[in-house]
TrEMBL record:
Residues 79-132 form a coiled coil. The keyword Cell cycle does not apply. Keywords: Coiled coil. The keyword Lipid metabolism does not apply. This is Uncharacterized protein. It comes from the Eukaryota. Residues 26-42 have a biased composition (Acidic residues).
Amino acid sequence: VHFGELEAIYKHASTNLPSSEATTILEEEEEEEEEEEEEEEENKTMRKRKRKKQGGGYSYSKVITPMAEFFGNLMKQMMDHQENLHKKFTEMIERLDEERRAREESWRNKELAQLEKEAEARSREKQLARNREAIIVSYLEKISGQ
């Protein structure tokens, strides 16, 4: 592997740096090159393995298909269960909301009936007060002689 431009840049940079820093940079470069070479070797071996498996070795698709089917069925069951729970939840919320509305309507009707009774009682009291006043006025008129 030749890195002409990079080597030229690093040689130029290493002449400007003190000797300890230059050696550190060179060591880092060597480590990076070694890592890159190791990665290339790993990639080559992986490619060879893939070719062997593709050629006629053991196929993962035979294992993956039943697993995928199992997990697919499991997900379907879970989704159905979630949908049923959501349906029950919404039905319960609607039922509770209807019950609440019915209680509020009943309360309103009771309050309205109570207000009507109070209004009738007030009108009776007013009528009684008018009758008393009329009796008192007539009694006073008799006494005064008018």
